[in-house]
Each structure stands twice: as C-alpha cells, then as structure tokens.
Amino acid sequence: MTSEEIIEKVKAGLADAIQDTGLPQGDAVIFVAPDSWHAVADFLKNDADLKFDYFSDVRGVDYLLEEREPRFESVYQLYSIDHQHSIRVRVGIDEDNPSVPTVSDLWKGALYPEQELFDMFGINVEGHPTMERLIMPKGWEGFPLRKDYPLTTETVTFSYNRDFKSDLVKSKPPTR
Fold this sequence. Notes:
Elements: H1 3-13, E1 18-22, E2 29-32, H2 34-46, E3 54-62, E4 72-80, E5 85-93, E6 99-101, H3 111-121, E7 124-126, E8 152-153, E9 169-170
Parallel strand pairs: 2-5, 6-7
Antiparallel strand pairs: 1-2, 3-4, 4-5, 8-9
C-alpha cells in the first residue's frame, strides 16, 4: 500500500477525526486532535488493510520560539510489520491543558516513551498506568525539553581546575 493509499484509507474511515494530511518526502502523515487520537490509533492498529502493529516512537515538540498554535505536538511513528508500511501521526496539544490520551493499551511499547513525554515536556498522558518521572529525579521541578526551561551549565572538574569552586550559571529563558 502506498503512502497516498494509506492516507485515503484513513480519511475514508475517519473523515471527522483527521484535521489534515501530508506527504513530506513521500511519507504518510496525518494530523489529529487529542480528543480523537485514541480512536484514530485504534483504527490504525485494527484495520486489516493498515494493521499498524508496531509502535516505533513518540516524540514531543515545543513550538514556543516559532509562536505556533498549538504550542506542543506529540509525533507518533507507527509501522506495519505485515504490510511493511509506516505512518506518522501528529497530535497538536494545547499549552493551557497539555494532555493526550494514552495508547499504551493498544501498543505496550508506548509505556516508557509516553512517560518520557511527560517527564521531558510536561504533557500529561491521560489513562497511562504509571504517569510519573522516568528519567529525571522524583523531586525535579520543570520539564527540561521545553523551550522556556532555564538553561544551566556546570563546570566540569578536570585535574587542571580541581580547586575551582563555581555555582551554577543560569541564563534567561527565551522570550516569545
């Protein structure tokens, strides 16, 4: 099935849920709203012609510096082992209520990547069984991959600067 055929099949099955589509570099891409994401994911996995049975990845994107709406996006990469085709699903997420439903009930491989989405971007994954810090320490404040997270540096101790005492140097977060 070609990327064009995948998009047509998804549009035919879920016309109301699809906000937009694209074919960058020939790859099938669909855009969906958070409230439609779980239904779209279920269709993508269980439709016999599509059968996206492999959850490859989810990435968070923060568009703060581009001043785009919505500010956040979760980008899912799915693959069909049987049919050997893939699709990218982009879910726009509002800054005021950064949340998206879990798909870990459909693909167990989504468990840790969804936790990382929360840990790094502060995007709440509704219905996730263990929504807690994964990479950062339990008491960590803020979300390090957000564009407005303050940048810090720490002097690394080498033999030539072992006696150098320095506090963390903080820079100002970027402004809109």
